[in-house]
Design brief:
mainly alpha; Growth Hormone, Chain: A; two-stranded antiparallel ribbon; 78% helix; 430 residues; 16 helices
Length: 430
């Protein structure tokens, strides 16, 4: 039987793609409104703009803390347990969070305490779901079309980021509980789609056989592989410093003065840029000078963030956020392809957990940093300073990790090709 030319020719990948799309739609419809409710409850209780920004910072911290603590265990779970079952269970937990918020909003007992509690539960769910899904995806398609699969998977993520906030904002204007009700339904669809993924090949765990030893091996591999370490930490520090998304409610309400509709537009803009970029790469995968182009993309990300920070004109702000999203997707596409193709299959769960922790550190903990900085020096100065920090990070990482400047293609080392699941098969049952 001939090898598939497109990931969509693989039934398991189609189910995975639908599961990720519906999960992302639910997450971003829900997270946008969580932030909006948090900021507005704080403002209506008499807090200042700075103090309310601090509440947004706390939301980010509460999502990050569980992930930071659980990362070694979640990575090991992704390598030792059935990855589909881990993904299904964590999606069910997110479904429960959406249901709680639906009832709390409908019956008008929503509060900062409820929102903070849900943030912790979502952090736990994402701590385990990220590594499981990240490690599962490369086993669904042949290595030759893995970069295409990563691009298509990113499209499902970015479409969710585009449509999710738009749906959340529109439904919130109709009835505040509706975004959470829709998220509950979408999480249910995601669970069903994950259940349609059949048996997939995976490699047995080599090396240490005790859990503590396996955790140590995963962390050691990341530390020793400068390609993986440099790619992961570049995203960590650049997005951590230049993350402006946590302050969208501040910009929507008090700087641009565009309300909930404008908030949806701000949330959609970077996802539009990212989706267009991912769609382009799904048809025309990048093949040359991948390392230098990743560095350039992160620098562009920082520059566009600076312009957005200064802007008080909505069309200019949206244009800069489109560029932010496109540049971020460009670097994500390269980084994820390099990490997946340069990591042995039996360590992908543990390496994915480290990658997931850095992504969460750059996003959720970055939200805490941005909100805290906004509390201290104001939201505009916080965003501008963060963008400048991302540019400095690019210059520093090009020096610290020269492999990022010299990597030309995605081709993995020969010894990894010899360790693929097809060479040492072990299937996950239903």
């Amino acid at each position: 039987m001939s090898e598939p030319k497109s990931p969509f020719q693989v039934a398991n990948f189609r189910a995975f793609w639908l599961a990720r799309l519906t999960m992302t739609l639910a997450q971003y419809a829900m997270l946008l409104i969580i932030g909006w409710l948090t900021y507005n409850i704080a403002r209506e209780s008499g807090m200042s703009v700075g103090e309310s920004s601090g509440q947004l910072a706390l939301i980010g911290l509460l999502q990050f803390a569980p992930l930071f603590v659980l990362t070694p265990f979640s990575g090991l779970a992704a390598d030792r347990l059935n990855r589909r079952n881990v993904a299904r269970l964590t999606t069910l937990l997110q479904l429960g969070c959406a249901a709680v918020l639906t009832f709390a909003t409908w019956y008008d007992f929503i509060s900062l305490a409820v929102l903070f509690s849900v943030a912790v539960a979502l952090g736990i769910a994402r701590a385990f779901s990220g590594p499981a899904l990240g490690a599962l995806a490369p086993n669904l398609v042949p290595a030759a079309i893995l970069p295409n699969a990563i691009a298509l998977s990113s499209i499902s993520w970015q479409v969710g980021m585009i449509v999710g906030p738009a749906v959340g904002g529109v439904l919130y204007d109709v009835q505040p509980a509706l975004p959470f009700a829709a998220a509950t339904l979408l999480f249910a669809v995601s669970v069903i789609a994950l259940s349609f993924i059949g048996k997939v090949p995976r490699s047995p765990i080599n090396g240490a056989q005790n859990p503590l030893g396996q955790m140590k091996e995963g962390l050691a591999y990341v530390w020793q592989n400068k390609m993986v370490l440099g790619s992961i930490t570049l995203d960590l520090f650049a997005v951590f410093l230049a993350g402006a998304t946590a302050l969208f409610p501040v910009y929507a309400r008090d700087i641009l003065e565009v309300g909930a509709t404008g908030l949806s537009q701000l949330a959609m803009a970077p996802a539009i840029g990212a989706a267009v970029t991912a769609l382009y790469f799904s048809f025309k995968p990048l093949k040359t000078n991948v390392g230098p182009k990743m560095l350039l993309a992160v620098g562009t990300f920082g520059l566009a963030t600076i312009v957005f920070g200064f802007s008080t004109y909505l069309p200019l702000s949206l244009a800069m956020l489109v560029i932010v999203g496109a540049a971020d997707m460009f670097s994500v596409y390269i980084r994820q392809s390099l990490i997946q193709l340069h990591t042995p299959d039996d360590k992908r769960g543990r390496v994915s957990s480290v990658s997931q922790m850095t992504i969460s550190a750059s996003n959720e903990f970055g939200d805490f940093f941005s909100g805290s900085l906004a509390f201290l020096i104001g939201p505009v100065a916080a965003v501008v300073l963060g963008g400048a920090g991302a540019i400095v990070t690019v210059a520093a990482w090009a020096k610290i990790f020269p492999v990022l400047r010299t990597t030309k293609t995605f081709d993995p080392p020969d010894h990894l090709l010899e360790e693929s699941p097809e060479k040492t098969p072990k299937s996950e049952g239903a």
